[in-house]
Amino acid sequence: MYRVEDKYGCTDMQLIMLQSRMEAVLKPDINEGGPEGYRITSLYFDDLTDSCLRDTVDGVNRRNKYRIRIYNDSLDVIKLEVKTKRDNRILKRSKTITREQMESLMRGECIEDSASAEDPATLFNLAIRTQGLRPKVIVAYERKAYVYEPGNVRITFDRNVRASSQTQMFGQRDISYDFLREYDKVLEVKYDEFVPGFLLQLLETGSMRQSAYSKYQLCRECAAL
């Protein structure tokens, strides 16, 4: 199912204020490890001609992103994900993979798949075979997340967005990062069909504007500096 995903760049003060409002009325994400939230680290892939990056820069209405994601620097849970964007709606295909499978993909090797278009491994394998899909950049940040079950609403606050070109070290703790000079904080509002009016009121600051924020694009640009 495609979900709406709206993104807003934030200042420190806006992030603190809005997070305080959400804390008062919404439940935290059940996967949070503590009051500070959790760390997300993703290894993004692209093909030989950087099609994913070019499509993002050009604002192509339908495009894919390929990534492997871990949490709190742990390899206990490794997620393989393909995100398909159609206008402002997102379809995410996700599955858990092993460390061995992760390492195979990092080397540009295919892994076992189900031959289904709903299996992200199938989509990864196809892109590896036909487009030369390879690791391009590591993206890391800290996240606080809140949920509101009616409408399947999820509101996330991401801070300290940073990038590394040391893709071969993904999953290790001693990676060297470059922090984004701007746009290192972002609010994301994700939902199926609607956001309740009271939440829209709580999210209003008078100055925030929706944007086509892309961590992948910004971190590719940052890592290339």
How would you describe what is shown here?
The protein has helices at residues 12-25, 51-58, 99-106, 120-131, 197-202, 215-223; strands at residues 3-9, 27-28, 38-46, 62-71, 74-86, 89-97, 134-148, 153-164, 178-179, 186-191, 210-211. An 8-stranded antiparallel barrel has the order 1-6-5-4-3-7-8-10, surrounded by 5 helices. The chain is α+β, with helices and mostly antiparallel strands and 225 residues long. It is built from 6 helices and 11 strands. The termini are far apart.
The count of β-strands is 11
Q: So what's the overall shape?
A: globular
Let me know the average pLDDT.
Answer: 93
List the secondary-structure elements in sequence, H or E: EHEEHEEEHHEEEEHEH
Largest sheet data: 8 strands, antiparallel, barrel
**Beta-strand content estimate:** 35-45%
What's the helix count?
6
The share of residues in helices is 25-40%
Task: Return the structural class.
Answer: alpha+beta
Order of strands across the biggest sheet? 1-6-5-4-3-7-8-10
Span of the ends, CA to CA: 37 Å
**Low-confidence spans:** none
Rounded Rg: 17 Å
